[in-house]
Protein 1
Amino acid sequence: QVQLVESGGGLVQAGGSLRLSCAASGRTFSGLNMGWFRQAPGKEREFVAAIDSSGITADYTDSVKGRFTISRDNAKNTVSLQMNILKPEDTAVYYCAARNWFVRSPYAEVKSYALWGQGTQVTVSS
């Protein structure tokens, strides 16, 4: 069973940068597609970015394109989210999620992910 642990959240001013990391335990990490989601108070959990098991294909929600970059290191069992030019509307709890490589649902589908981390808070001040 794979477990996911996020780190790297914090408080940053608008225009700043943060890098989130997600460490996965277990030996099946390379067979998982990985995603980042976020949830702001009073809002539903929303898709941010995803990357396939090989690290070749990535997808982003429109609001973060050009600002965020998802990457993975299968040798280290980690997936990262580099967040640049942060905006106050990026404030949320960010979650790392995983699903098997053969799941064909859209990356943005929350319920298609079987594994979730505990979340890390990102706060962007104006």
Protein 2
Amino acid sequence: QVQLEESGGGLVQAGGSLRLSCTASRRTFSSYAMGWFRQAPGKEREFVGAAIWGAATYYYADAVKGRFTISKDNAKDTLSLQMNNLKAEETGVYYCAASRWPRSGSDYYTVNGYDVWGQGTQVTVSS
């Protein structure tokens, strides 16, 4: 069973930046899409962004458009989430996820669109 591992979380002041990374435990792991979600205390896990490899398409939640960027380092086989101008309300655990099978586009905006998840990394934005 492939596993995903996130890294790069930490404490940052509002307006600052962080770069999260996601690595699969198996280099031969292939996916149709990978996404980032976050979960604040007491709230449901919410969509942040996704990369659909076959379509070379990137989706972002409206709240993060223009500030967050998903990219993939093929040499390192790592998915990254660059987060700029962070806000205090974006504090939470950030999760990386992957879909090993193709799904409809709308599925990738929800947790149901992914079947492999990482353990998450904590991001704390101080105001």
